[in-house]
TrEMBL record:
Pfam families assigned: ABC_tran, oligo_HPY
Domain ABC transporter span(s) in chain numbering: 4-254
Protein name per Swiss-Prot or TrEMBL: ABC transporter ATP-binding protein
Top-level taxon: Archaea
Provenance organism: Ignisphaera aggregans
A GO molecular function held by the record: ATP binding
InterPro entries assigned to the protein according to its UniProt record, in alphabetical order: AAA+_ATPase (IPR003593), ABC_transporter-like_ATP-bd (IPR003439), ABC_transporter-like_CS (IPR017871), Oligopep_ABC_C (IPR013563), P-loop_NTPase (IPR027417)
Biological process annotations from GO: peptide transport
Length: 327
């Protein structure tokens, strides 16, 4: 069953100097009982995609065009406000970056949760607190944190409180945006275990896990999506994409970022052209054709002229590259 489907989705930051095309023609399907990882360099549009899919669209971010369907609810620019009330936090929920700053510092956790959930449901405060207590216990967190202020919690505890809040209404899709950033290694492991436990218990139907760390994504995702300059350039099963990346950018990214596993690194090295050089392009004025061509050692004339479509080269394997596309 399809939980989320995005077709040619475009969302731009509208600035005085122009449009920042942070999500520019994204096609994505997330099925029930699937964990999809999203990887790419900083500035490639990962976090903006998270905001768009969770309907956290506030100026200057604007939904420009495309089709987005979440649990059968179609969302357009015209229906965004109505859909946000019915979908955001209920059918899809976001665990944002930076747990240190995501929670209001002057409110007790109990009051913060009640304020957030009461906007999305007709539950009274007592019912919300009961749900929160139950979820905290399920995540092996002491219920006493409800009476604490954010500054009294460690970064890891705050992140787990945000996860508890995001899953309180059992959304169909949980989007976790860099949930382990700024945490030490042992705390990262706890947060990852918490997310996996939520998924295994069926508290959420599916998950979108965003990170720049491919090794972390590999631990949890059954599928990986590679983003570059606002677009998806490759999409496939986790192990297949890591061991046999098709897009030149994916190859370079796997070799550059992947935690050293000699067997994997050697296999990627044999594919050739592994050095990731240069900087990502400006999303205000991106290159014509394939956006990766200025950095790609395999670029052809067609790459500079025409944008490659994202095509299915084999079952469940998609790539946007003229090396794999018949013209």
């Amino acid at each position: 069953m399809v939980v989320l489907e995005a077709s040619n989705l475009k969302a731009y930051y509208v600035l005085r100097r122009g449009y920042v095309r942070a999500v520019d023609g994204v096609n994505l399907v997330i099925n029930e009982r699937s964990i999809v990882g999203v990887v790419g360099e900083s500035g490639c549009g990962k976090s903006t995609l998270a905001r768009v899919l969770s309907l956290d669209l506030v100026p200057p971010l604007k939904l420009v065009s495309g089709r987005l369907v979440i649990e059968g609810v179609e969302i357009t620019e015209a229906s965004l406000n109505k859909a946000r009330r019915a979908v955001a936090g209920v059918k899809v929920s976001l665990v944002p970056q930076s747990a240190m700053n995501a929670i209001i510092p002057v409110a007790r956790i109990r009051n913060y949760i009640v304020d957030i959930i009461s906007e999305k449901t007709k539950l009274i405060s007592e019912e919300i607190v009961m749900l929160a207590e139950k979820r905290l216990k399920e995540l092996n967190l002491p219920v006493e944190v409800l009476d604490m202020y954010p500054f009294e919690l460690s970064g890891g505890m705050r992140q787990r409180v945000l996860i508890a809040l995001a899953t309180l209404l059992n959304p169909s899709l949980l989007i976790a945006d860099e949930p382990t950033s700024a945490l030490d290694v042992s705390t990262q492991k706890i947060v990852m275990q918490t997310l996996y436990e939520i998924f295994n218990r069926g508290l959420v139907k599916s998950m979108l896990f965003i990170s720049h760390d491919i090794a972390t994504v590999r631990q949890i995702a059954d599928r990986i999506v590679v983003m570059y300059a606002g677009k998806i350039v490759e999409d496939g099963a986790t192990e297949q994409l890591i061991h046999e990346p098709l897009h030149p950018y994916s190859r370079m990214l796997m070799f550059s970022i992947l935690t050293p596993e000699l067997e994997v690194r050697e296999r990627v090295r044999k594919l050739g052209n592994i050095a990731l050089i240069g900087e990502p392009p400006s999303l205000i004025n991106p290159p014509h054709g394939c956006r990766f061509h200025p950095r790609c050692p395999l670029a052809m004339d067609v790459c500079r002229r025409e944008e490659p479509p994202l095509i299915e080269v084999e079952k469940g394997r998609f790539v946007a590259c003229w090396l794999h596309t018949k013209r």
